[in-house]
Amino acid sequence: MPPVIEVSRDVPEGLDLLAVAVTTEGAEEPRLGEDELPATLLAAQGFTGAADQVALVPGSESGPPRVVVGVGPAAEVDADRLRRAAAQAVRAGRRVGSLGLRLLEVLDADVTAGQRAQAARAVAEGAGLGAYRFVDFRSEPTPEVLERVVVIGKGGAKTAAAVELGARIAEAQCLARDLVNTPGGTLTPAMLAEVAVEIAEREDLKVTVLGPDEIAEAGLGGLLGVNRGSNQEPRFVELAYEPERPRGTLAIVGKGITFDSGGLSIKSGEGMMTMKMDMGGAAAVIGAFSALRAVAPRCRVLGYLPMTDNMTGGDATRPGDVLTIRNGTTVEVLNTDAEGRLILADALCLASESEPDAIVDLATLTGAVEVALGNRIAGVLGNDEVWLDQVEAAAGGAGERIWPLPLPADYRSRLESTVADLRNISTTKDGGTITASLFLAEFVADGIPWAHIDIAGTAWWGDGDDGEWSKGGTGYGVRTLLELARTFTPPRRRRSRG
Predict the structure, then answer these.
(1) 390-429, pLDDT tens digit by residue?
(2) CA end-to-end span of the chain
(3) How far apart are CA 431 and CA 427, in angstroms?
(4) Closest CA to 242 of 299, 295, 196
(5) What is the pLDDT of residues 294-325, one digit of tens each?
(6) Which residues have CB under 8 Å from 268's CB, separation 6+?
(7) CB environment 364-397: b (16+ within 10 A), e (fewer)
(8) In principle, which of 119, 283, 328, 331 could form an S-S bond with 176, CB 3.0–4.6 Å?
(9) pLDDT for the residue numbered 495
């Protein structure tokens, strides 16, 4: 069980460990802060207050041992830096029963109440994310020791509410991590749909699940085509959060390929090793819906989740086959490993039919985005400048890095087929993220602002634990979606970013 995250104005008695933040300027003082941390001892450990440094100080009669976390120059301390520091402190304190996080004191005295609340929320998020472990498949998992984390800071009810919300957001992101980390042979499309139903029932959301017959009736030819090589039945899940007197409608779409072998265009053995993560978009959407009630956005939020695996069974879709998407568009499949865009095409058609004010989709879509941006920054593309600005602002407010890529109309010719309306891969090898996004754009109804977030690089973290990042599934996108819903303003203009 993850630790309980609570809040206190002052340092509670009986803590096993206390974490404090120190800036680079603070590390130069002879006795650091009200704790009077021994500067000589810290200096002997090479501690300078630089960001990401962690040091330990023994306890005394007046207080518990302390873990000291460097946060860099005081002018650079913000919610993102404190989220990271909280995660580092929690990892350092995993072997104690209770940990206090006195990190908010390094904030500038002039910060607004809103900024202080945002920082408190980030500390709680970092604590929950830093405590994350995935042990479901270990025969003898190491028992959890840390049971209680106390965020210490002034601000009264606002700080308490922010910490509570931060804990819920972290829980939502950890749910997405669990889903991504679960093997594809266990997390089948049917099981993923069951998780979505459980969340909907818990959160009092509307949910609809389509099985194979209903998917066929709905004309979801992309989803059926990808599913042809599988022994597992596909699912299509629709979720809805509907507040009273909603201020606009936001539709979110998530790619749900529970395992991707590449189909007949089969991946290499190494390329398949992490392909249980190919449903990271759907996981992020389910995670976000699990915390929507806590965030309480004023807009209506609709979710569209196509779910299948991509396998090599006897009747798998062959290169050269033609599929018909829900809107009647025919697609020549020339690479069965470009399957995510096929199931998203159906989902974007359905999302468009609900006539939302805007659409955003998340998908582990292209390896090209990781080549361009690495594994910590997602790419975003779309058809509306105003909406893209809003998505980027939400990602920035949530502390998830994102970068815009162009969507030039003249690249569209690379998707022209000689036998169908479209081909599912470009005629060239360059610009893969762009051409995949142009393919998706074909299935967004005219006039609807749309953004596509390619999380192929950010949904999986292959290196060791680093700040709030844990090895394996990251749950990237949950915080962005929640912030986007919280701050949603229906776009009024269409200005293409090309």
Answers:
(1) 999 999 999 999 999 999 999 999 999 999 999 999 999 9
(2) 47
(3) 11
(4) 299
(5) 999 999 999 999 999 999 999 999 999 999 99
(6) none
(7) bbbebbbebbebebbbbbbbbbbbbebbbebbeb
(8) 283
(9) 54
Alpha carbon 279 to its chain centroid, in Å, reads 11
Task: Say which of 116, 276, 341, 497 is annotated catalytic.
Answer: 341
CA distances from 70 to 42, 107, 326 (A): 11, 13, 53
Distance of alpha carbon 407 from alpha carbon 292, whole angstroms = 31
CATH superfamily of 182-486: Zn peptidases (3.40.630.10)
Dihedral pair phi/psi, residue 241, rounded to 5°? -110, 120
341 is known as an active-site residue: yes
The residue annotated as part of the active site, out of 133, 267, 412, 471, is 267
**What pLDDT score was predicted for residue 494?**
54
How many Cβ atoms sit within 10 Å of the Cβ of residue 167?
25
Cβ proximity of 380 and 362 under 8 Å: no
Residue 349: other Cβ atoms inside 10 A: 23
* C-alpha 38 chain-centroid distance: 40
Q: What is the DSSP-derived secondary structure letter of residue 477?
A: T
Q: Quote the pTM value.
A: 0.96
pLDDT in tens, 162-189: 999 999 999 999 999 999 999 999 999 9
- The CATH classification of domain 4-167, taken from the options 3.30.110.30, 3.20.20.20, 3.20.20.30, 3.40.220.10: 3.40.220.10
Domain range list for the chain: 4-167, 182-486
- The whole-number pLDDT of residue 63 equals 82
The answer to whether 294 and 168 have CB atoms below 8 angstroms apart is yes
- pLDDT tens column, 312-360: 999 999 999 999 999 999 999 999 999 999 999 999 999 999 999 999 9
DSSP code at position 413? G
The residue whose two tokens read 């980027």 is: 392
The answer to whether 54 touches 67, Cβ cutoff 8 Å, is: yes
